[in-house]
Amino acid sequence: MNNPREILILSGKGGTGKTTVASSLAKLINKKVIADTDVDAADMHIMLNPSLIEEHSFKGRSKAFIEQDKCNQCGLCHSKCKFNAIDKLDNKYIVNSFSCEGCTLCYEVCPTNAIVMEEEEAGKWYLSKTDFGLFVHARLNPGAENSGNLVSMVKHQAKQTAIKNNIDTILIDGPPGIGCPVIASLSGANTVILVTEPTVSGVSDLKRIIGVAQNFKPEIAIVINKFDINTDISKQIDDYANNNKIPILAHIPFDKCIVELLMEKRTPIESNDCPEINKEIKSILNYLGEKHDN
Ligand code: SF4
Ligand code: SF4
Prior knowledge:
Blueprint: E1 5-11, H1 18-28, E2 33-36, H2 44-48, E3 51-66, H3 76-80, E4 86-89, E5 92-95, H4 105-109, E6 115-130, E7 133-140, H5 147-164, E8 169-176, H6 180-186, E9 191-196, H7 200-214, E10 219-225, H8 231-243, E11 248-252, H9 257-263, H10 275-287
Parallel strand pairs: 1-8, 1-9, 2-7, 2-8, 9-10, 10-11
Antiparallel strand pairs: 3-6, 4-5, 6-7
Helix pairs in contact: 1-10, 5-6
């Protein structure tokens, strides 16, 4: 089969309602693999209640480790390390793994080959099943780096899962911001839906993320969440989108109903309490060419 279509939901910053939109689409689109690439603060699993099928270790950067029985205490590694990652404690040279940058200099200079470079686990990735489809997600260990690589791993695994199961759509909840994890999530994306809010910072974040996303040449569209909290700024976003020929798929109103639903781990489309929000989310579905039941 051809490569599955990747639909990526992004926002220029956290807290814009990105995961609510992504979870709602995850529950509405008929056949898809769902992926959560917000590996630093994954939260889509809360809405999807997954059952684990597979758990895999994700290796991060290599760290130095000193085999004490081979060390002659010469101190060369300690004096050469530019990151002050090797301490002398109780007459032993010890690597502080939090400070070690994995540059391998100590490994190169050690005269007795007492230093080994070992890959540390930076996180885990998971394949789960949900009532709404197969779900690939991950968790980065506290303090671990390499979130961009873990995002790439989640995307790769989601694609393999889709191909293996003959599924032609991957719905991805992306990371917030415009950093390395976002760039990793954009690679290969066909459609990018940007969720924004009508605030001054929301507009500037939106313009920045559009600038980054355009480098990858996907189809780009905008959803304005809580559009009615500031209709002047919403109009500015409308004008900006029109001038740049970017479609606005939905103007989602602010409604307190959503707070209660999210506390019950339900999306607005699972209730009749938020009809205006439902209507707007279903218009996103129409844009994506997906059918819904009502
Ligand atoms: S350079 Fe090698 S032998 Fe020297 S202190 Fe470091 S680990 Fe020990
Ligand atoms: S690998 Fe580099 S950063 Fe880590 S302890 Fe050795 S010299 Fe220092």
